């Protein structure tokens, strides 16, 4: 499988991880990424996401938010 192939199992794991991934620092420290305000995520996108897992998760959050897919995460969110 080449690096451009879609792996549904990997995608499922990433989405499940995102459902409980929390912002580690800043104004929104402790908040689920999927619950960050869209303008903040869009601003971060224009600034550039950090390297590593946080950046990857913020990038995924951005794509989900700008495409209006947040409701898909309601059944996946951990209890607060």
Radius of gyration: 13 Å
The biggest beta sheet is recorded as: none
**DSSP summary: helix tally:** 3
Quaternary status of these chains? single chain
* Shape designation: globular
- Low-pLDDT stretches: none
* Strand coverage percent: under 5%
The percent range for helix content is 40-55%
What is the distance, rounded to the nearest whole angstrom, between the alpha carbons of the first and last residues? 39 Å
In total, how many beta strands?
0
Please provide the ordered H/E string of secondary-structure elements: HHH
Tally of structural domains: 1
Helix-and-strand structural type: mainly alpha
Mean pLDDT: 91
Notes on the protein architecture:
The longest helix is centred in the last third of the chain and has 15 residues, at 52-66. By secondary structure, this protein is mainly α. The chain is built from three helices and no strands. Helix content is 46%, strand content 0%. It has one domain. The radius of gyration is 13 Å and the shape is globular.
Task: Please describe the topology of this protein.
Elements: H1 8-19, H2 38-47, H3 52-66
Helix pairs in contact: 2-3
Summarize the structure.
With 80 residues, this protein is mainly α. The protein has one domain (8-73). Helix content is 46%, strand content 0%.
Keywords:
80 residues, mainly alpha, 46% helix
């Amino acid at each position: 499988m080449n690096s451009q192939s879609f792996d549904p199992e990997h995608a499922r794991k990433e989405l499940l991880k995102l459902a409980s991934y929390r912002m580690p620092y800043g104004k929104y420290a402790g908040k689920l990424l999927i619950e960050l305000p869209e303008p903040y995520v869009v601003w971060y996108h224009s600034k550039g996401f950090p390297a590593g897992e946080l950046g990857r998760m913020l990038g995924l959050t951005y794509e989900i938010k700008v495409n209006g897919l947040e409701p898909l995460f309601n059944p996946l969110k951990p209890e607060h």
